[in-house]
Design a protein that fits this description.
Elements lengths: L13 H30 L30 H14 L6 E7 L15 E2 L2 E2 H9 L5 E6 L3 H8 L2 E3 L9 H11 L4 E6 L9 H11 L4 E5 L4 E9 L3 H9 L5 H5 L4 E5 L13 H16 L1
Parallel strand pairs: 1-4, 1-6, 4-5, 7-9
Antiparallel strand pairs: 2-3, 6-8, 7-8
Helix pairs in contact: 2-6, 5-7
């Protein structure tokens, strides 16, 4: 039976009643879905949008700019790498050589390495600064060899030709006496060696793929503060045999690297006169009191 219309209502025609019922049902379902969606939004907790640097869109030139995407710190990274290189040098492959083979004319002919400074011979100061940085020690001397051996407790080697041919002759003799790959040379009158001299010279040599590395004081090269591959010995001998003596000229013929040691100016003090020795002695005495 059909529903009886209430007062004021008009019964729709049969065709219209079916169409109106469908529309009403659709409207009801639409409202239900809308209410359900709103209910879900209200019930769900708010979430912050995720921002990832990995998917951040950036200009290709931003790759190494600090603050762009994954940040890099090139300066700090470089300093850490430099420190690691200094700490990782092959100490077992290095023989320390104190060069004391000169005539010391400006010291009145006195054997410079045996000159007393602050209660000890200058060669002893040099050996003490060098010993922690190398695997073994040598002294190159052309006179007073017994005295040097007693002071240094190490072998003493003379120049090959005994003609006071300069530091290159001492280097060649030391290379022929050692079994390590490298020698590290310092002059006998340098009691204030940098504690990381070997590491810094090796870092320079390795970074430049060089055969030798030489200290630089910020103004000029200091040629007797050097790390040399012992494979260079034949080249030195040939150079000396040809009459060559200038160490700078021979260095210029090889693959050479410079190590910046301007932060250790005291290491390069020249002790050529008794007055220079007195100045150095006062400086050493002041350091011992600190």
């Amino acid at each position: 039976m059909g529903t009886i219309p209430g007062p004021g209502e008009q019964r729709a025609p049969p065709a219209m009643r079916g169409e109106a019922a469908i529309r009403a049902r659709v409207n009801v379902l639409g409202r239900e879905r809308m209410i359900l969606a709103l209910f879900r939004v209200i019930r769900s907790p708010a979430k912050s949008p995720k921002v990832s640097a990995r998917v951040r869109t950036r200009h290709p030139t931003e790759k190494n700019i600090p603050g762009a995407g994954n940040r890099r710190r090139p300066c700090r990274y470089a300093s850490v790498k430099a420190e690691a290189a200094r700490a990782a040098y092959p100490i077992q492959d290095i023989t320390g050589v104190v060069l004391a083979g000169g005539r010391a004319r400006r010291m009145g002919g006195e054997d410079k390495g045996l000159v007393q400074v602050d209660g000890e011979a200058m060669v002893v100061h040099a050996l003490k600064g060098l010993a922690p940085q190398v695997s073994s020690l040598l002294i190159n001397a052309n006179r007073n060899q017994q005295r040097y051996a007693e002071l240094g407790h190490c072998d003493v080697v003379a120049d090959g030709d005994g003609d006071y041919a300069g530091p290159l002759a001492g280097m060649a003799s030391a290379m022929g006496h050692t079994t390590t790959r490298f020698i590290l040379t310092v002059p006998c009158d340098s009691p204030l060696l940098a504690p990381d001299l070997a590491g810094r010279l090796f870092a320079a040599l390795r970074s430049e793929d060089a055969e030798l590395s030489v200290a630089h004081d910020g103004v000029r090269m200091q040629p007797v503060f050097a790390l040399l591959d012992c494979a260079l010995r034949p080249s030195i001998i040939d150079y000396l045999a040809s009459g060559g003596r200038k160490i700078d000229a021979w260095y210029g013929s090889r693959r050479m690297a410079l190590a910046d040691l301007r932060d250790h100016p005291d290491m390069f003090l020249n002790i050529n006169t008794p007055e220079d020795r007195d100045i150095l002695e006062k400086r050493l005495a002041g350091q011992s009191q600190c």
